[in-house]
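Q&A log
Question type: sequence-to-structure
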Amino acid sequence: MRVEDTDRERNTAEALTVLLKGMRWLGLDWDEGPEVGGDYGPYYQSKRSSVYKEHIEKLFAAGRAYEKGGAVFFKLEGERYTEYDEYHKAEVEKVRTEPQVINDVVRGQVVRAEERDFVIVRSNGQPVFHLVNVVDDITMGITHVIRGEDHLSNTTKHCELFQALGSPLPVFAHIPMILNSSGPGKMSKRGDGVHVEDYERRHFLPHGLVNFLALLGWNSKDDQELFSRDELIAKFDLHGIQKGNARFDEKKLAHINTEQIRRLPEEDFLELCIPVLQSAGVDMSDGAYSEQVLLLCQSKVRSLMELPDFVAYFFDEDFSFDSKAGERLFKKGEPLDRLTEVRAALAKVDDWNAESLDQAFSDLAESNGQDKPFQWFPVTRYTVSGTGGGPDLVPMLSVLGKERVLVRMDSFPYRYPT
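Response status: OK
Response body:
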């Protein structure tokens, strides 16, 4: 982990804290760097001035740097000539350099040439991005430089600096840009959906987010979308990265997050859910009951953020009714008649468990000349939960308990908003 904090106006201690906290939350721990240490520190560019000064002096000594207007320029090698530059609307000095051949892992072979000397230290004494990153890569033993394709235009400058400082080139991999959910533009640092802390606040699984991010511009060649951490480490390969830009699709992120929730070991799921519900004011005093409810919902809930609303009727008698689900229910026949029938059937169940409840529904269907009891399911679910969907009905009734179910059925005609 290397902190590029040479821009004093834009970099603050608060911003760094957020960055490191986000990395920790995602589980992207670093082996060396801030808060860890290592053999190649300091790991803040703002503390490496002496390292940059040493390499600037090397460039001066080799005749590859000069001062102009208070700034320090890197001097290219090659024939110099003057030419009118349309962009600058003036005659400028250019250099015929040997083209740089970049064997990029993603883009393939890229041939580019720098044609003008460039600044490596600003007139205020501040070394620029090109110099500090190359010097850090050299002194920290970096073997691979992986960054967005928008940096490809910088890479020829960096190659020139690597070679002038007598260092071999690292492996370059310029990865595709991430586009907005809609439209052609790339995601902005200030746009929606770009701050890790927003996803933490919304109770996304950190690994669900990592799983999604790994798929932006990469695939495993076998169409696998859900990965454990170990699977990602084993399968991720730079050669699997595509050249085309990737689109940030929050619907896909939500889907991956949901599937990762369903894959969680039960104990991990419970550990994540309990603080979410407690912070929402849900009464978790009955631990055994709460655990039953949560495990019943694991395969159905789409996100931990919706969990308090999803399980509300398990913990509160004053639950709300979904009006749209109610409209659908009352469009089909006479649901109150079916409610009377199913209430009578369930009242006869003595051993209140899933097996006995299944049998009660089967007997109800048979006594009414039906092969299946499905026509009684919607009204049963709606009267006891106020919803049109959720966990499987019979296990839900089993967890709620006989007394709670029957009381809700009895009160339904009076509580349901008409």
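Response note: Residues 365 and 372 are 6 Å apart (CA to CA).
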